[in-house]
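Lay summary. Proteins are chains of building blocks that fold into shapes, and those shapes determine what they do. In this project we predict the shape from the chain. Here is one chain we studied, written as its sequence of building blocks.
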Amino acid sequence: MARRSKDEVRDFALGRVIAIVNDKGGVGKTSIAANLGGQFAGAGYRCLLIDLNRQANLADDLGYRGTDVDDQGAGLLGSVLAGTPLVPAPNVRPQLDVVCGGARLEDLTPVMVSRLQHHGRKAFRVLGDVLAPVATDYEVVFVDCPPESTILSDLALAASRWVLMPTKSDLGGLVGMGLVAERFTLAREINPRLGLLGVVLFDTGSRSRAIHSEARAAIDRAFGGDSPRFATTIRHAERTAQDARRLGKLAHELEIELAAQPAWWEALRLDIRAPRVSPSAASVAGDYRALGVEVLSALQAAEEAERAGTPGGASAPA
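And here is the predicted shape, written in a compact code that computers can read:
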């Protein structure tokens, strides 16, 4: 059997790395990364989350902010500087590890600016280089990308096999998606395997069919006439989003709490005054389950097409 080249080994290791990216903030990148990672881990998949966000919102969604796990991005920065493999924080949930983000990532941008001046765009390969040695320990890796930071997003795009792009149906989300389409094209110069796994509408009314149709037309304009779009939408549920951040729990974990909490009349009779989990948690958890099934199905279809030597599952902007 022929020995694989160093690049082939790297490509194989990064074959299940998914960058969750949109240049606009507030479109669901962190919520989708946390909830898909948590649900996949709960189903028995070994998952890794990489937080490239200086605000480190994954720490809130998963409830580890301020704990011993939370290194504020120091480990990620150190690995990039030294070129050494990433060291994830283990078992933030069973089967779910995290490479933390945070304030220390402020130093990563000037480091990359300097490297770009000396090495050109190939400098963006560094995140993939330090991720590849550990990526094979996991079945799925999600990279939570920050908004309005082209350098950090380009690091993620150069390390990833796939892009999953959430967007809202408003103008800001769609403009941010269009900007990423441009970054996507540039990233393929150094990462030609990069493909669009799909676009998902986030924080939208579940019955807003006309708005969904308009948003999907905008997606096609940004990424070409037949771009992959997930059928699942993540519904707007403000109270559940607030509960998740307040409690550091994911939608399916809130769903479990919802099932266990006493009926409102029983809580009133027993004088139980603890905040109640919103009933919408079950619906939101169902949305994430449906999206997770679509993501895994898209991965499987794309990988089967790749093994068969036929195109499928990946899309590049027109």
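What the prediction tells us: The first strand starts at residue 17 and ends at 20.
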